[in-house]
Amino acid sequence: MQLFFAENIEGNTFHLDPEESNHLIKVLRKSKGERVSFTDGKGYLYQCVIQDANPKKTKLSVESRHFTPEEDFYIHLAICPTKNADRMEWMVEKITEIGIHEISLIQSEHSERSMIKLDRLEKKIIAACKQSVKTRIPKLNPVMPMEKLVSDHRYDAYERFIAYVDKENDRHLFEKATVNKAYLVLIGPEGDFSPKELELAFKYHFHPCSLGQSRLRTETAGLAAVHTLQLLNAISRD
């Protein structure tokens, strides 16, 4: 299935913006009467028919709609942006394909980058959802201080973890997490979290966890954490 995205699909007909219209009609050479699949990123899958193949304002009609319920678990990854923006974009793309629900960008004492182009990340997320046929667009939050996130009481009911490298921190995330929960996992920069930041996280009931014996790059650690939690919940369903 080839999946397309339209943010607001209301009623039985809708129009695409010029960029999406051009891609559908000029690039992919779709024509009037062809059936295409759309999502609004909110859990709905729409089967549609092209009514007017206008490369600037394509009109489509909705034949059917299917709603995908939310999963029994929720993965929120909070991570320090990498110095190389391409590496962060790669990670966001891959964790979207694997399955992420929310991404927060955090700034720590050893952060290598404080600014990042959210619009580019959002485009990567949408493209990855279309590629992997996902009907829910993950939430992306702008850069915020680590202290602001860890002290936010909205996450009190989450299972909260902080991943870092230490010979005494040897229990893997897979062992410590419980199935069908909401999770918040902190991933630090290449220089890792400072001792002061670790103490801050422990103060707000974040549990230390390992992602394996290797020292991972920031983006690799983010990918490993998301895959671990997806795997944990997938195994529980078998």
TrEMBL record:
One MF term in the entry's GO annotations: rRNA (uridine-N3-)-methyltransferase activity
Primary site of residence: cytoplasm
Keywords assigned: Cytoplasm, Methyltransferase, rRNA processing, S-adenosyl-L-methionine, Transferase
Ribosomal RNA small subunit methyltransferase E methyltransferase domain sequence ranges: 70-230
Reaction equation(s) it catalyzes: uridine(1498) in 16S rRNA + S-adenosyl-L-methionine = N(3)-methyluridine(1498) in 16S rRNA + S-adenosyl-L-homocysteine + H(+)
GO biological process: rRNA base methylation
Residues in Ribosomal RNA small subunit methyltransferase E PUA-like domain copies: 16-60
GO CC annotation, single: cytoplasm
Pfam families membership: Methyltrans_RNA (PF04452), PUA_4 (PF20260)
Family named by the database record: Belongs to the RNA methyltransferase RsmE family.
Protein purpose: Specifically methylates the N3 position of the uracil ring of uridine 1498 (m3U1498) in 16S rRNA. Acts on the fully assembled 30S ribosomal subunit.
Name of protein: Ribosomal RNA small subunit methyltransferase E
